[in-house]
Amino acid sequence: MFNNRKTSTVMSSPYLAWAFIFIVVPLGMIVYYGLTDDSGAFTFANIASIAQPEHLKALLLALELSLISTVICFLLAYPLGMMLAKNKMGNQGIITTLFILPMWMNFLLRTLAWMTLLENKGIINGVLSAMHLPLIHIINTPAAIVIGMVYNFLPFMILPIYNALAKIDDNVIDAARDLGANKFQTFMRVTLPLSVPGILSGVTMVFIPALTTFAISTMMGGSKILLIGNIIEQEFTLSYDWHLGSGLSLVLMVFIIINMIISAISERKESD
Amino acid sequence: MKKELIQLQHISKSYDGHMILDDLNLTIHENEFVTLLGPSGCGKTTTLRIIGGFERPDSGRVIFDGEDITELAPNRRQVNTVFQKYALFTHMDIAENIAFGLKIKNKSQAYIKDKIKYALKLVNLEGYEHRMPDTLSGGQQQRIAIARAIVNEPKVLLLDEPLGALDLKLRQEMQYELIRMKNELGITFIYVTHDQEEALTMSDHIVVMNKGYIQQEGTPEDIYNEPENAFVADFIGDSNIITATMVRDELVNILGTNFACVDKGFGENKPVDVVIRPEDVKLVERGKGTLPGVVSHIIFKGVHYEMEVQAGGFEWLVHSTRMNEVGSEVDIRVDPFNIQVMNRPASEDEEAIGVAE
Amino acid sequence: MQKKKSNNVFEKIYMGIIFVFMYAPILTLIVLSFNSSKSRAKWGGFTFNWYIRLFSDSEVLNALANTLIIALIATIVATIIGTVTTVALVGLNRKTRAVIMGVTNIPMINADIVTGISLMLLFRVLHFNTGFFTVLIAHITFNIPYVMLSVMPRMKTISPSVYEAALDLGARPMYAFRKTVLPDLAPAVVSGALMAFTMSIDDFIITYFTKGSGFDTLSTKIYNEVKRGIQPEIYALSAIIFIVVLGLLFASNRMKNVKIKPREMDERKAKGRKVRLIAATAVAMAAIVFLGMLFGGVFSKKSNQVYVYNAGEYIDPEVIEMFEEEYGIEVIYDEFESNEIMYAKVAADNAAYDVLCPSDYMIAKLIQNDMLYEIDLDEFPNAQEYTGPQYFESAQAFDPGNKYAVPYFWGTVGILYNKTMVDEPVTSWDVLWDEKYSGEILMQDSIRDAFMVALARNGFSINSTDPKEIEIATQDLIDQSPLVQAYVVDQVRDKMIGNEAILGVIYSGEAIFTKRENPNLEYVIPDEGSNVWIDAWVITKDARNKENAKLWIDFMCRPDIALMNFEYITYSTPNIAAQEMIEDEDIRTSEVAFPPAETLKRCDTYVYLGEEGDRLYSDAWKKVKSAN
Fold first, then answer.
1. Which residue blocks in B83-219 are alpha helix, DSSP H?
2. Binding partners of C (≥3 Cβ pairs within 8 A)
3. To the nearest whole angstrom, how far is the Cα of A164 from the nearest Cα of chain C?
């Protein structure tokens, strides 16, 4: 600890061992399975199979839906984050917490809630038909999946954006106004750029789980719509093809790494 | 008399029922270095923020150059502010920070470039254009904040405790820098501080505030030498503030001993406070002064010795270049013109409002 | 001023809308938890029934207890490891620190599905017995980073001088650390632990991949239920969880307020309060763990067990209890959704279950891959006596010599339709391609059944491995998919009862049950022919409780038990004695339960198609699923 290298090494070694066994080795296994076939021979076929139309389609659809969800989450969360950050004093804390609260409900219960609302004979249609309005048919469509994603991941966007905005010194905003910027200019040139780190972490926290989900698409999509997450899940639980599943996981990791690089670059740009 | 630039008329402001400013009236002249001085919570920063446009007064008016600007947004005022914690834009480099106001006003590239160069030269930070704010020291950041404000050529520069976060040596350096800049720019500085030494060093005009009221206004000399009440006296430098009785004009009874003074018009046998600066207390041989005492404590302070003397049941603070050993028996003598006599406020409210009212 | 006010109104409306968006679904669940009608769209009156049912549903309670225990233990372990490591980090050189932080970031950034799969691969390759401990290890692994990332910034701000001062004054390192560094770290440690706890409770994906047989957390339990059709007890559970969370939130908020308000309260007092608070939390946690152990029985597992893996809704739950009572054997009972899912699980870990109940073609596949234990029918007196010999003979098709399987139920696949909503008599699979019924068709989410429909419709063999025929069938299914409301398994039943769809592909047994609930439903085996299947009990090769497994299988063949199961799930029982004991005349002679020979002539059994054939079907199936 502090300057004692020996103690520090001893103290950190349990975790090092743990991390090696349960983080590094398992990843290595994915790489191994992804790059071999049944006989253990080296192959790129598992990774290349992403080019198969059904895989590619699932990947593109997952990308599309997760991007849409991320954008919607951002558009909803940013104004809300601003309002919450403005009221950071006093008992407003509880209001902020209330927007984060659904996060503590079980993830599947949250999704289930939307299933019950959107079903063809569900609550919303029940209300609509009682009011003699046209019914909606959203369940089992990509739109329902987007709703499920937005609903589940919105708190993950609100929280970092709120934190970033609350951290901005009021004086900095005053300074911009003082230097002649009107409210809009102040927002565009000061508030928005200063909240970029929060936006980036919010985007990551929404985009990655949305891109890789299989539970939401199964529940809201009625198993009719396959995302890349479903494909991978089925390789392990249905088709019993670990090699293909690992190969596709590797492809997924490429997107995760791309996302990491993008946020690292834009963050560096911010602080350069 | 210089031209009147800013007038605050009957300004009141409260937060959550808590009165910050109460019917404040203040006039600021052109090309003056005005300091608002007072302890924290005295309303000095609120006053500054009202001038800057960040706060609206609950009542009263702000007149700038003959125009009512009470409702004007901060971005449309001809004043600029240097914030306490600098408030630099951390996502922009130094040049972009300085250029911020100019870009908003759509100035030409060449003009902006010139201005950045000029401003950096003024604050002695040439060549720092492309550094990021958080790579700069506190003093450097403060200078950038000043540069960022002055490139907009404001008529008034507001400075909110700009040196508060700096260490002593840097603070002193910056004080001279600020005076130099003010003279070079020829504009009005309104400076907020709780540091009386800073106020005395830099200002043309000091406004001492407490609890939302102005206690005293005047030149540094006025304020130091003739504090109008115990608060001002206590706040401006170390003082011996002693309750006393005004026997009659030009004679005051301090701790049971009569001292000659120069003040008149307090009436006879009236309770008063007297202020005597420690450097004005002379220690002389026993029998040669007015009040006998014993030295109880002594510290060498470099320029002078700081001594405590027990005399008449009061612990006198004395600054002197001559040393008297602890335990030595001395007499205290004060020249009449060094005794500052003040009305004693009867209640706390009255104390806040001050004797000037 | 005016402007500000209107701004405020706008803000309030905006916040209100998002608020509604976030809470309306939760509120819905709460309302539904009091709805006496099982249908979600109708209000059938107020009831507490679902709450009562919830508290007697040991499976859900077990899952809840498991969730809490896993979360608590994982949080505690992760908090200790994470804090110790973070403290140690400051003493390490830059490079080591960077490596550790880099590794720590992996589970944070990586997709849960990849983390889950990677751990699953590890556990499988190391032959770890998946279950409680694998899930715990996984949770600890992804929790540690949350603790470290929470403690790290705080640790960076702590200067060593206070710690060194304590050493200087003669304190031993541990004491000095506890007295100087730890108090400063405490808030960050607590918030890291809270974060870890939250993540652990909420996790589904990683648990899903790392959990083993007979072990469920709330998340995986709900996921199973969703696929099968949600029971209203789950709504009751959601309501309780929500109220508890809300209560905790307000309690903690009030505590915070109390802590800030009396400024005069000196620090020591505040510290005392904090200590008491921590102590109270610790006591509460211990209580939860204790209760959890009582319910979850994580550590009280009897040594005498049998692990059963059966299809969903395929047994009378009372039968399980009877077996447990009669033999003193604890039954760990899991359900699978399709034969393929069952196979993947058993292939990955043969010893995960002792007894399985797969269908014919899957039994053939299991036999071919040497995954089953050879049995001797003499050890199953009930089976020998009461199970119709014709069924054993049919079983020879997939189990030559009857060396592995004991028939459990049999049946056909057909169309269940709502006769009030169709215009013409349903006699052909073609009706499932009729655009009139767009969005009102439910298909089976099972490869063989879905392809059977398409192959039969085209007059091909339902066991075809001809790529051309499969291509035609695939194209048919793709063409059909826009018309399909959903691909489901056990949900067909509930959805048809609830009038949520007009046509659904379903197994014969469900037909009798659904008809009881909704008299408008009718079951038909289309003229083109269909599948007749047998599900049978088998024992896995590496089963750890083979003797118990045998007892289980023979117990299922006892006439009274077979009858109970028949009456509960209404599939066709091969148990002759049970058949004769059926009281309800209509059912005993029902053509659905016991189809006449001429109908059966139209039907074929599935045969195992081999690796190649399987691949052909599963690739084609993926094409269908990703078509829209």
1. 94-104, 109-122, 138-150, 168-185, 196-202
2. A
3. 16
